[in-house]
Design brief:
about 45% helix; five-stranded parallel beta sheet; alpha/beta
Length: about 120
């Protein structure tokens, strides 16, 4: 599976890359929504793992723009403040192939999320 990881925290993207590559997936990273969109166009991943709050384009804006190319793209949102975004996340889950994971999360939680959604691709 090909995974795009987008987070404005460069340490987080590096850690996530290593964790996901250990599961034998291809990974590319970006540090904001604009760079994430450009990376999507080049890489065409099966899954987009994105932070919600980022500069230049937030995670929701990024995934909305990606859906113009691939309406069924699998998106997993990361957030440290799920309550703030819960209604939008529920709406996304109702309408699209979407999930979310709360920061901080463990390697086991990430692994479970990847294996759960690997079957959607």
């Amino acid at each position: 599976m090909k995974v795009l990881v987008v987070d404005d925290n460069k340490i987080m993207t590096s850690i996530l890359r290593m964790m996901i590559e250990k599961k034998n997936h291809q990974v590319i990273t970006a540090n904001d929504g604009e760079d994430g969109y450009a990376a999507y166009l080049q890489f065409r991943p099966d899954m987009v793992l994105t932070d919600i709050q980022m500069p230049r384009k937030n995670g929701f804006e990024l995934v909305t723009k990606i859906r113009k190319h691939n309406p069924s793209v699998m998106a997993v949102y990361m957030t440290g403040d799920p309550g703030r975004f819960l209604s939008r996340l529920k709406e996304e889950q109702y309408n699209h192939q979407v999930d979310y994971i709360c920061k901080p999360f463990s390697a086991a939680e990430l692994s479970l999320m990847l294996s759960k959604h690997q079957h959607w691709t």
